[in-house]
TrEMBL record:
This is LysR family transcriptional regulator. Keywords: DNA-binding, Transcription, Transcription regulation. Pfam families: HTH_1, LysR_substrate. The lineage of its organism: Bacteria, Pseudomonadati, Pseudomonadota, Alphaproteobacteria, Hyphomicrobiales. Gene3D superfamilies: 3.40.190.290, Winged helix-like DNA-binding domain superfamily/Winged helix DNA-binding domain (1.10.10.10). InterPro entries: LysR-type_TF_proteobact-type, LysR_HTH_N, LysR_subst-bd, WH-like_DNA-bd_sf, WH_DNA-bd_sf. Belongs to the LysR transcriptional regulatory family. SUPFAM superfamilies: Periplasmic binding protein-like II, Winged helix' DNA-binding domain.
Length: 300
């Protein structure tokens, strides 16, 4: 059996389609399909049911996948271990990261890391939705939010303080809420991946959820910030987005007598899978670049 055929089969099983596996492997779809067909001939077994609607694994495919994927991970770990012994980090590293955080802070922090380790082949997929790191073949997932229970093992990179903000114009027209009860009556700008339930505050040892009146729902933090500056309502934003506009006076921080729920920037990897030295090195690089407290909170 050829290793590239096994790798193609594992990628197809994880991606759920030959076309997506080809994209992840950066190969032509025909090449991936041919490698799967050759592997099936070598094994003398059908591994995949193909249809026009979807692709599913056969019983033989399910059995072979468990052994093949663990073997591939073992080989990758062995290769990485040899690289580490030589004092180098090399090979592919695939992570998922949020769009705005990457554009503003993650990307600039990673460029020196890649210059120091030119043999690393890094792929960053920008996506704000919740991803399944195991099923979608990510080595790590960078995210911003509360660190709640999940099937991922998370390493904290930096705290991420969020604040309620509004424009001076909005506050002049509508007044500033002084407590959580008054906040409920205000027009809100909400992040669609979290919805209006995102306004969560810590009162003593309890978490209190506030539901404002929806004025705008959008799935991008920069647009939320711009909408708040335009006077469309109150929004809850991390300082890594709102900080410059707060310093410039375009947004004002509101005090409602309670702190928003604690959040962090973290990198997570599938539980039970040994994280690579590359992922550990990347996490260390980001932790050092962000600082504690993070540099974007300076002066606020």
């Amino acid at each position: 059996m050829k290793l590239d055929g096994i790798a193609a089969f594992v990628a197809i099983a994880e991606a759920g389609s030959i076309s997506e596996a080809a994209r992840r492997l950066r190969l032509a779809k025909s090449v991936v399909s041919d490698r799967l067909a050759q592997l099936e001939r070598e094994l003398g077994a059908r591994l995949v049911h193909r249809s026009t609607r979807r692709l599913t694994l056969t019983e033989d495919g399910l059995i072979f996948l468990e052994l093949a994927s663990s073997s591939l991970r073992g080989l990758e770990t062995a290769a990485a271990t040899l690289s580490e012994r030589r004092g180098t980090l090399s090979g592919p590293l695939r992570i998922s990261a949020p769009v705005t955080l990457t554009a503003l802070h993650l990307g600039p922090a990673l460029y020196p890391f890649l210059r120091r380790h030119p043999q690393i082949d890094l792929t960053i997929e920008l996506d704000d939705r919740r991803v399944d790191a195991q099923a979608e073949g990510y080595d790590g997932v960078v995210r911003h939010g509360p660190m709640r229970d999940s099937p991922l093992t998370a390493w904290r990179l930096a705290r991420s303080r969020r604040v309620l903000v509004a424009s001076p114009d909005y506050l002049e027209r509508n007044g500033a809420p002084r407590n959580l009860d008054e906040l409920e009556g205000h027009r809100g700008i909400f992040y669609t991946h979290r919805g209006i339930a995102d306004w969560r505050f810590e009162v003593g040892e309890k978490a209190v959820q506030v539901r404002g009146r929806p004025g705008l729902r959008v799935n991008n933090g920069v647009v939320m910030c711009d909408a708040a500056k335009a006077g469309l309502g109150i929004t809850l934003l991390p300082l890594f987005i709102a900080g410059p506009d707060i310093r410039a006076g375009a947004l004002r921080v509101l005090d409602v007598g309670a702190e928003p729920e604690a959040e962090f920037i973290y990198v997570a990897h599938p539980e039970g899978r040994r994280p690579s030295a590359k992922l550990r090195a990347l996490a260390d690089c980001l932790r050092e670049a962000f600082g504690d407290p993070p540099y974007w909170e300076a002066g606020l």
